[in-house]
């Protein structure tokens, strides 16, 4: 029961993270292009501030639940007298997941900080540049997230 609950938390956290990136990248940002830069940049700043706060929690949940589930299976294998060989799909999932977390850290703690400073200074050119950089890295993380899901489904 604990394993299933943690797996549910793990999957729902990933759905929220990847779904949020997909929504923002594919629907929200393009829809805001008709707004004047000060309004658009402030709006994106406010949306990203809320989203990144949730993703900080999600990242911790994904990492903790993923490590716990791997550790649980490894422990049960060893206790049953078997060797534990992590499936390739899990290895790919873990590696790509850690890479996604590192990229999110860069987005949140470097790029978003630039956006925050630009908005506070009403420097719309710098804010636009920060949003453009965030968009690129969110796109990279979105591709990695989809690749992680595909690898997990295909490789097991």
What report would you give on this structure?
The chain is an all-alpha fold and 156 residues long. The protein has one domain. It is built from four helices and no strands. α1 (2-31) crosses α4 (124-155). The longest helix is centred in the middle third of the chain and has 43 residues, at 37-79.
What is the structure about, briefly put?
The protein is mostly helical and 156 residues long.
Average pLDDT reading? 96
Radius of gyration using CA atoms only: 18 Å
The percent range for strand residues is: under 5%
**What is the strand tally?**
0
Uncertain runs: none
Q: End-to-end span in angstroms?
A: 21 Å
Question: Top keywords for this entry?
Answer:
mainly alpha, 88% helix, 156 residues, 0% strand, single chain
Task: Please write out the topology.
Layout: H1 2-31, H2 37-79, H3 88-120, H4 124-155
